[in-house]
Amino acid sequence: MKTTKIVSTLLLVSSFVCADALVEKVKKSGIKAIPQSQHELLTIIDDKKDPITSEKVELGKKLYFDPRLSRSNLISCNTCHNLALGGADGISAAIGHKWTANPHHLNSPTVYNSVFFDAQFWDGRSAHLADQAQGPVQAGPEMASPKELVEQRVNSIPAYVEEFKKAYGDKVDVNFERITSTIAIFEKTLVTPSRFDQFLNGNANALTKAEKKGLNTFIDKGCASCHNGIALGGTLQPFEIAAKYKFSEVGDFKGNANGMVKTPTLRNITETGPYFHNGAIWSLTEAVKEMGSVQLGINISDKEAGEIVTFLNSLTGEKPTITYPILPASTDKTPKPSFD
Amino acid sequence: MKTTKIVSTLLLVSSFVCADALVEKVKKSGIKAIPQSQHELLTIIDDKKDPITSEKVELGKKLYFDPRLSRSNLISCNTCHNLALGGADGISAAIGHKWTANPHHLNSPTVYNSVFFDAQFWDGRSAHLADQAQGPVQAGPEMASPKELVEQRVNSIPAYVEEFKKAYGDKVDVNFERITSTIAIFEKTLVTPSRFDQFLNGNANALTKAEKKGLNTFIDKGCASCHNGIALGGTLQPFEIAAKYKFSEVGDFKGNANGMVKTPTLRNITETGPYFHNGAIWSLTEAVKEMGSVQLGINISDKEAGEIVTFLNSLTGEKPTITYPILPASTDKTPKPSFD
């Protein structure tokens, strides 16, 4: 009995020591926790020139869910970045207006934690969410709405205009840029802390033994050389460093002008398959192995990939509670949808 | 001063008397309020053989919002019956799988208060919501999912199976009929009491003077001969009684075998345009005038139509607060989406 107690105590101590060492190792790799305090979080995500307020968030949420921002009245931001489905759409290549697939066969990235990315889009061509939000709304194969149409739709609905005034003052110009930057403010709040953050913040028991082992393997294999920062991703990195991606021929995406590709976040990765920029890999284990080969030039065994996937489960975070909005009704002045 | 007081009192009394008389008139027309008490409401909407429980409602909500019930993973019940948009989609004819419009050019009716309908679908071919829900999921131009696909998708997700067990017991067979009847249980809760109900329930001031006047015109013109019951609609009625509908040629819908058409509910009608079975009329005033001509054989003047529309505004009800669901993730066993 006594012996058992001593052994348990030793194991507990040893587990704490291990955990501490592992946390240090993780931090050295460049991975960071989502800040626990609201204040600290705001220093990262807020913009003093256009601060986050509850009025803007509520309005941005409505616009995010409003399919009337699309030409057809059928597609909202949430169609491809579905907050019920890990912030993505669960298909290989995005499908939008007229059932058109993304011409480069690009997969919709998750919107959750995208505020922590250095750059937006797979080629990182947008520096921030407010700029990013302008793209899909206008893109022909996505929401297919010219700026003017979006402005006319929103301005034709007095309750929307009223909400813009409440959020930005009576003199607000409800233009396309304002509409999309308001959506971005809502998106900034889509942050999902997980057990992994609790672990980094000192709760050694927040991860299971198997998850800690997987985390250790993740670091040892070098995954954090690209998957780092708060998002464990979201920075531009070279792609196909060591070998050609086995589904390289699906779509024609080759990164930005320098061949750089935005690393996807690993937060909520278990919910955001299929994987890779062209969504050609459906199994997370297979994705991990392929990444090892393509980016690190190593063979990750089935056992090691399984360990890493076990760790990745701990990155599934708690989603903000979202009350589904009731949108203000269209009026006789609201431009009609079109489907061509 | 004294005179003013007496006059005010008299006016107040007279307004109460008028309101009472108007309530009597409304009740005589066959229009009913949404019951105020939960118990009374349940006697209408609940089914003792499959009673409403919070577990079933929560699960039904998830399924209602889950686009993985569709062949493509892109279309959910909420796509066409959008709870943010009055329970409808704001387009003339429903558009579904492969961007296909409803082949009969039929407009998506609202799901709100549909539990009060005598029959479902424009031709009333379904007796209740559980039967109705089976249609669009399978229909080629809508969600295009064979029964077996829906069953495989749901059963491949352990968290869903677990929720079915919690709702129906461990021996539950998670088959297509159970999945769709669970959706229907969620839909039963989509009831939207409005100021009009408060008025019928004795609050004479719940409607403005103009709304009362409009209500009076509504009854006097005979609108309640079809738009009655709790839903102010939802029963099968002959169509084109007095004249041909001016957009009769849009689509080929001619009602059921006997030419009967389900009367749309007028609850939330200001939010559910465009109007008529083929969604060919966008203006509510125009819809009211056309109804007078087609169904009642009368000319409703612009002024009268305006009065009626003023009343119809009071039927915009309070929507249940819906927390947007977080859906359980797909697994390696979940059948992949297809787009053909």
TrEMBL record, chains A, B:
The keyword ATP-binding does not apply. It is found in: Periplasm. SUPFAM superfamilies: Cytochrome c. Its main location: periplasm. The keyword Acetylation does not apply. Gene3D superfamilies: Cytochrome c-like domain (1.10.760.10). Heme c 1 binds at C77, C80, H81, H97. Binds 2 heme groups per subunit. It comes from the Bacteria. Binds 2 heme groups. Residues 1-19 form the signal peptide. Keywords: Heme, Iron, Metal-binding, Oxidoreductase, Periplasm, Signal. Pfam families: CCP_MauG (PF03150), Cytochrom_C (PF00034). Residues 55-165, 209-316 form the Cytochrome c domain. PANTHER family: CYTOCHROME C PEROXIDASE-RELATED. This is Cytochrome C biogenesis protein CcsA. It comes from Candidatus Marinarcus aquaticus.
